[in-house]
Structure formats: C-alpha cells, structure tokens
Amino acid sequence: xxxxxxxxxxxxxxxxxxxxxxxxxxxxxxxxxxxxxxxxxxxxxxxxxxxxxxxxxxxxxxxxxxxxxxxxxxxxxxxxxxxxxxxxxxxxxxxxxxxxxxxxxxxxxxxxxxxxxxxxxxxxxxxx
Length: 128
Fold this sequence. Notes:
The protein is mainly α. Helices cover 52% and strands 6% of the residues. A two-stranded antiparallel sheet has the order 1-2.
C-alpha cells in the first residue's frame, strides 16, 4: 500500500457525517478515485501529453501506433512492444496500452489537456 492511500483513508474519516461509513463508501460519497485509478489517471495523462508532442525526444520509440478508422473507439490504437522479462509489466507502455485503447474516441482525440482530463475523469468514473 502506498503512503497516500492511508493518508486519504484518515482524511476522509475526518469529514463530519462520513465517519461511520466504510472507506469505499466515503470514497464514493466524495467522488475520490482509488490509488489504482489515480495511478492509471496519471499514466493516461502522461501518454496523452506524449502523443500530443509535449515530450519530443524519442517520440516514435515509446509507443507503436496503429491508425485505424474502422473502430468505434480511438482513431488510432497503441500496441505493446515485445519484452522477455517479467519487468515488462512495470513499464509505462505496458501499463498504458490496454487502457488507452479502451478510452472513448472523444477522450483520446481531445484537443487540449484540460479537455482530456475532464473526459478521462468521466471515463474512469464509469469503470467502477
């Protein structure tokens, strides 16, 4: 468990009227994401910035892009590279590809970071 999860757990207990609820109920009531979803949110925001050219160095080497107009979701899909070690599960690209490809088209093709964040929060809220 990361250090931020116990901090969030204690902080939500301090809110009057929510003390008697379970941690999960307090999270839902306050519309807070779990640590896992917050990590995913951060990863997807970084991927969006990378794909929009914020990080110019080695742009073509991080993700393999497969453009596809026939799908109803994003206009292009990302594909995973091939790695032989179990450490591949920890790599940023390995964590992001599956979730990026599952994003709604309007989120993945957002014109700005702020729009992407708003649409991503909506998509993550529906994952529960």
